[in-house]
Write a structure and sequence with these properties.
This protein is of the alpha/beta class. 51% of the residues lie in helices and 11% in strands. The protein is built from 6 helices and 7 strands. The strands form 2 sheets. The chain has a 5-stranded parallel beta sheet, sandwiched between helices. A two-stranded antiparallel ribbon has the order 2-3. Helix 1 crosses helix 6. The radius of gyration is 21 Å and the shape is elongated. The N and C termini lie far apart (72 Å). The relative contact order is 0.14.
Length: 221
């Protein structure tokens, strides 16, 4: 079959457009990764003295549990929440996360058990045991806020998780302050890189797909 010059031009035009679209998408994803990586540092500039910030409660976002004990990543989040309580920066701890297959305790129950062992009064700990992801963590925590008349919270998670978590909290109209853990179990560059790719993917996924329902809105007063 004879190939006409116009067909060749059309082929290269389509190829150029596809490459351009791919380059734009790649640039957008890289920009997202940078914004996620730099997010905690930008917040630190806005709040140079985070130890002076107060809220009604700290929402500790769930993470994996090993049978009946928090995983190292989750333990860092719980420790930071406990630190905020003992420093007098929050009055309540809200632990989130349901039961995963193969575990003995739900994420929130394991966190509660850990906090009780660190001397936190039982009446100052609130938990929910139905959520399975970050968005559901915040929805269920929001319901606890409404039930206990809590209006302002700190959201506790790993630094690279904060941008996605705070974006979701804003969508739910939760009056929230970022409280990233000062330490992380993601120490090596490889682990940090994998975590950044994970967070970037799910941040983009959330931005593109959103959530079908927003069932809870806390009072922002």
């Amino acid at each position: 079959m004879k190939l006409h010059f116009s067909d060749v031009r059309r082929y290269f035009r389509i190829k150029y457009i596809l490459l351009l679209v791919l380059a734009i998408l790649l640039a957008g994803f890289v920009w997202t990764m940078l914004s996620i990586a730099l997010y905690p540092a930008l917040l630190d500039q806005k709040n140079p003295r985070p130890e002076k910030i107060r809220a009604d409660a700290a929402i500790v976002l769930g993470a994996s549990v090993w049978k009946d004990k928090p995983s190292p990543v989750f333990a860092e989040r719980i420790k930071h929440g406990i630190r905020l309580y003992k420093n007098g920066q929050v009055d309540y701890l809200i632990f989130t996360g349901g039961l995963s297959e193969g575990d003995i305790l739900s994420e929130s129950a394991a966190a509660r058990q850990y906090a009780l062992g660190q001397g936190i009064p039982a009446e100052k700990i609130l938990i929910e045991e139905v959520s399975t992801n970050t968005y559901q963590n915040l929805v269920q925590a929001c319901k606890l806020m409404q039930a206990h008349q809590l209006h302002k919270v700190m959201i506790v998670s790993d630094p690279l998780h904060m941008k996605r978590a705070m974006t979701m909290a804003d969508e739910l109209h939760i009056n929230a302050i970022s409280a990233a853990t000062p330490t992380s179990r993601y120490i090596s560059w490889r682990a940090k890189g994998q975590s950044l790719l994970y967070e970037s993917f799910f941040y983009v996924k959330h931005e593109l797909a959103g959530e079908a329902n927003i069932p809870c809105r806390s009072d922002k007063s």
